[in-house]
């Protein structure tokens, strides 16, 4: 798949325009990033018949995947995963097409690594959602969300949540379709490359 086509499919025309403006402004030493935190209250029971077959992944699984397809799965992604996969409370789940990983997502049940703080014991944080570019548009994002909701419920969690950058319209749409509601807006500002980021939370 053409890289430009994939980016447009993932972020939409408006999202791509936003990211272009963001890069230009950042070159001038100004950074402004907006995220929305989406939350969902889980039902008491989740019907396992609606789940597709999936696999709880290890670091070896990800390393093997890189040998199958190094174009979309590379060293940068491996390093991101290595930071969390073996830490307590973190798990990764993957959906396969034969031997090929086509979608994966992670869950944390005790630490919110996005804002670096301990979570409420009733919640689970969904993060690092990624779908193989050749399989986007097949509803896999919704399926990997459902898998992690089921795993969170098994561990006694009643609420799941995720952060989505405002430019990532495809991801936001996927969470909304799964019943998630945006409750918090996070804004990161930085004026001057050597100055610290300022973070602001706004309840919606």
From TrEMBL:
<keyword id="KW-0808">Transferase</keyword>
<dbReference type="Pfam" id="PF00583">
    <property type="entry name" value="Acetyltransf_1"/>
</dbReference>
<dbReference type="InterPro" id="IPR016181">
    <property type="entry name" value="Acyl_CoA_acyltransferase"/>
</dbReference>
<protein>
    <submittedName>
        <fullName>GNAT family N-acetyltransferase</fullName>
    </submittedName>
</protein>
<dbReference type="InterPro" id="IPR000182">
    <property type="entry name" value="GNAT_dom"/>
</dbReference>
<dbReference type="GO" id="GO:0016747">
    <property type="term" value="F:acyltransferase activity, transferring groups other than amino-acyl groups"/>
</dbReference>
């Amino acid at each position: 798949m053409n890289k430009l086509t994939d980016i447009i499919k993932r972020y939409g025309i408006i999202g791509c325009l936003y990211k272009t403006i963001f890069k230009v402004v950042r070159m001038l030493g100004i950074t402004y990033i907006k995220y929305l935190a989406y939350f969902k209250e889980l039902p008491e029971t989740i019907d396992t018949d609606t789940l597709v077959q999936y696999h709880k992944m290890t670091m070896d699984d990800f390393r093997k995947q890189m040998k199958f397809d190094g174009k979309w799965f590379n060293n940068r992604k491996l390093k991101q995963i290595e930071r969390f996969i073996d830490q307590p409370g973190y798990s990764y789940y993957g959906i396969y097409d034969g031997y090929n990983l086509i979608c994966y997502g992670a869950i944390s049940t005790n630490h919110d690594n996005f804002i670096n703080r301990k979570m409420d014991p009733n919640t689970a944080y969904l993060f690092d959602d990624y779908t193989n570019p050749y399989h986007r548009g097949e509803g896999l994002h919704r399926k990997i969300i459902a898998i992690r909701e089921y795993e969170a419920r098994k561990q006694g969690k009643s609420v799941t949540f995720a952060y989505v950058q405002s430019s990532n319209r495809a991801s936001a749409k996927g969470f909304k379709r799964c019943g998630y509601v945006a409750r918090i807006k996070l804004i990161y500002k930085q004026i001057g490359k050597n100055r610290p980021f300022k973070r602001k939370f706004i309840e919606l």
